[in-house]
Every structure is written in C-alpha cells, then in structure tokens.
Amino acid sequence: MxxxxxxxxxxxxxxARYARLLSQMTGLPCHTLPAAKTLPKGTxxxxxxxxxxxxxxxxxxxxxxxxxxxxCGVGLGDAGGQDAQARKSNRIMEEIPVFTLQxxxxxxxxxxxxxxxxxxxxxxxxxxxxxxxxEEKMLRLLRTGGDFVSGEQLMPVLRWFGSL
Length: 164
Fold this sequence. Notes:
This protein has about 160 residues and is an alpha/beta fold. It has helices at about 15-25, 60-65, 85-90, 110-125, 135-145, 155-160; strands at about 5-10, 30, 45-50, 55, 65-75, 100, 105, 145. It is built from six helices and eight strands, in the order βαβββαβαββααβα. Strands 1, 2, 3, 4, 5 and 6 form a six-stranded mixed beta sheet that branches. The termini are close together.
C-alpha cells in the first residue's frame, strides 16, 4: 500500500523542512510525530527523523503505531552516506527503503546534551591528525555551520515514491 502521509520528528528544523518539502512534492499531508496520534493505527507513512550516531530519532516509537513504508534520516553527513548504518542501527527491514539526507548545523538551535555532544565531537575531530578530506569537510561544518536542505536531495525518495 502506498504511503498516505508523511510523519516526522525534528530538533533543529532541518528535518521539518525536508518533511514539508516532501509534502509539497508528493501532495501527502505532513504531521509531526505527536500530531500523528490522530492518524488511524497502521496508517502507511514516510517517516523522517534526525540522525544521532546513526540512529533515526523516534523511529521505534513511530513504528509501534504506524506502518512505515520508507525512512529518511536527516543528519550532518552527505546524502546517502549513512544509509547502511541507519538501516543497521535501527534494525530496519530490507524491504523498507532508507534514505539519508544532509540537513545542516546551526549552533544557536542546539542546547543541553546535544550542544555538549557536538562540542565534544568537534574537539575530537580537531585533535585528530591526518584527517581525510571528508573529515575536514565535517569539521568545517561542525565549526561554522551550514544549511544543505534541498529538493535535489529528495530526488531518490521521489523516484521511489513514483515507482509505487
């Protein structure tokens, strides 16, 4: 059965922006996870959550109520770069497509434990000798921030959705 809604959870706004953009591109209604409680149990959805250490935030909580047909994880890394890790960390079945999208970094939207974790990650990466080009790119993002939300990154999701 084709998804009939988009459900998401966002912390700094990048995942919310992707969810709204995907909603505009597919015509599917978009709901936050708390608001999705109004959807009938078992509603087929596309689920978007932010990535933290390879885990898609609140995926398991959403899975208990909804029929998740596709998972999009939004994180700091390049689009597609964490697909396998997100599948493994969240124990997502092979028949459910997983897409990872690059969101961004805005230090002003981080607080508490998340700000502390990003600070620690930045210090660890900065102290590392002989960083790869990808690690240098990530360190720049951690230090200066950036916004990578784009419709182009959603093209693989749209191709999957259109093939149903």
